[in-house]
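Hey,

Quick one before I head out. I ran the complex with flavin mononucleotide overnight. Inputs first:
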Amino acid sequence: MFYEPKKKDHGLPKNPFNSLVIPRPIGWISSVDSAGIFNLAPYSFFNGVCYNPPTVMFAGGVGSAADGSKDSVRNVLETGEFVCNMANWETREQMNQSSATVAPDCDEIAMTGLTPVASTLVKAPRIAEAPINLECRLIKAVDIPGWTPKDDYKVVFGEVVGIHIDDTVITQEGFVDVAKIMPIGRLGYNDYTRVDSDSSFTLDRPT
Ligand SMILES: Cc1cc2nc3c(=O)[nH]c(=O)nc-3n(C[C@H](O)[C@H](O)[C@H](O)COP(=O)(O)O)c2cc1C
């Protein structure tokens, strides 16, 4: 089949787009607003984009708050900082819970029963239960205009200035133990995948 997204002529019961770029890593973004209220939410329009400096991005759509911004995006623009926590099999339920639409003054870290820990270089807290935390500083935000204003997105780029890796997920050989972490990825619809020892494999690069 072929369809043109703008014509919405796929003929399927649901827009398939988010099943077509998969699996997507989940940036589980913790931030703090200027009043000190913690925020936590998952973003799967998320990725690492380059090495030096290590850089990540996440894209936020229109939010339910009066200013139309998602809380994470507003906080990052206000404070210039955020933490990207790795969501895994162990924390999948809390990750999902933290996507609930709540008022900006709701502390979603407390709401999900997770443990905030002070970061080393940024004011945004990191999540103790996450095996990896990337402390980030805002580089820039780019507007992606939607077909209508309710489709607008803002892509936030951050430089990773500090990295925490739980020592228990580093193997004796010094590799990050993906099978132990069991990261989760977003598929389409409400579906997810899990990386574990059965689902990961190695390919040597051609010389
Ligand atoms: C797995 C998952 C991935 C999501 N990815 C995105 C995303 O990339 N962009 C977005 O705007 N919302 C995304 N959402 C929805 C947000 O998490 C949700 O709107 C949340 O309430 C935003 O919180 P905030 O306003 O505290 O930032 C996702 C939800 C889930 C469960």
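The radius of gyration is 18 Å.

Talk tomorrow,
K.
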